[in-house]
């Protein structure tokens, strides 16, 4: 019985590193930086400027949207936006996440 519990926990730990949020739209980084202003940009403004994206909605009313952007090194960048329940951008995060195969 203990080995079964250990196997299940190992399987769950292995799945925790998978990427559950896949971006649906690639946008230049400069456009993202100019458009998304924490504390002032709203969902409607971001959607109008950048278009729809992959979104995860939480029971609290918060939403996370993700876009990708090309980088100079050839890697793919990820830009994640957190909207509060009031629809205003709370935080953003960006960085290179993977290299594009050529």
From TrEMBL:
Signal peptide: 1-20
The keyword Signal is annotated on this UniProt entry: yes
Keywords on record: Signal
InterPro entries, sorted: BamE_dom
GO cellular component: outer membrane
Keyword NAD: no
Pfam family, one: BamE
Domain annotation Outer membrane protein assembly factor BamE: ranges: 34-91
Protein name: Outer membrane protein assembly factor BamE
Origin species: Janthinobacterium tructae
Upper classification of the organism: Bacteria, Pseudomonadati, Pseudomonadota, Betaproteobacteria, Burkholderiales
Gene expressing this chain: bamE
């Amino acid at each position: 019985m203990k080995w079964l519990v250990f196997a299940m926990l190992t399987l769950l730990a292995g799945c925790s590193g998978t990427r559950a949020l896949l971006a649906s739209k690639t946008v230049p980084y400069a456009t993202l930086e100019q458009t998304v202003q924490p504390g002032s940009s709203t969902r409607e403004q971001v959607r109008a400027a950048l278009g729809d994206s992959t979104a995860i909605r939480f029971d609290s009313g918060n939403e996370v949207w993700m876009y990708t952007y090309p980088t100079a090194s050839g890697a793919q960048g990820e830009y994640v936006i957190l909207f509060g329940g009031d629809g205003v951008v709370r935080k953003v995060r960006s960085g290179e996440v993977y290299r594009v195969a050529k």
